[in-house]
Amino acid sequence: AVQKRMVALDRYRGAVRFMAYAFVVIGLVLLFAGSEALLRAGIGLSRAVGLPPTIVGLFIVSAAASAPEFFVAVQAMVRHAPEMAVASVVGSNIVNLLLILGLGALFTPLPSPPKNVFRDGLAMVLASAALVFAAWDGSLSHMEGFTLLAGFAIYVAVCVVMDWRKSAQDSAARAQCRAPQSFGMSVFLLGAGLVALYFGGRCLIDGALVVAQQEHLSSTMVALILVALATAVPEFVFMLSMSARGWSDVTLGYLLSSSLFNILGVLGFAAVMYTPGIPVTANPDLFVMFGVSVILMPLMISSWRLSRFNGALLLLGYVAYAGFLAWRLGYLPIAGLHG
Fold first, then answer.
1. Is the pLDDT of residue 327 over 50?
2. Which residues pair with 305 in a beta bridge?
């Protein structure tokens, strides 16, 4: 009888584990579909009201790419797991700057003009440093959230001033070929995208919390690995799409902008909305993100592009980070360092 109960319990645990991962996959699909719908709807609406290309690129393309992180952060707060909001954003940014940029540069060298380097790249360094400083005491307070949002507003204002007169031939405007032709269809896609993002974030967080429980992992580690990779999918697809169309000149700028949206916009909003503030448990990873943003600067300045060699270096950096995560999980015991 005891053996039968043990077998039944194992089957039950297996079913729960399967359902948890299934929820993660469903959440991933919904987040991707929602961000794509939001992107097309935003471009369609902006074209209908005659917005300039710089607004399309800055507010719509980058914001749509960051939408999964935003909705995941909201669901993490609703589920009383706010530490996952920070961990997912930090993990997603590390994926963006190491894995996705590395793969993109390995596929084709990515131009990094001075404007992207000294505006977007430097802003990424400053935003990462600000987040490390703000989280030094182990939490993000309301005031620190307002400070991040103020930094986001300053960055947006600088971008608008610098790019307002950008030519309509800007690569962001080329994405309009994917936009719906009618205003009504754009509104429909906007609503459908928001619904998909809401339920996608809910499924992903619910599944990730159960995965953490079943695999005996902290919610922070699950967010850094599983949730971060899932929410970075729109950026990865965007990079592939732009490279395939020969528009690699926009890839670097939009990945940096999306990462800045994550830090300043998503975490700033989350810290302001959550009481009494967001606990931060991904402290080592904050320093990794800051270090990556600093290292990226000379790589971008080198020949004003990310070469294939630089892409390989970024990929090796992500492999090293993955090894660091594996060591923290106990999969890579190293004499003198691990337990």
1. yes
2. 111
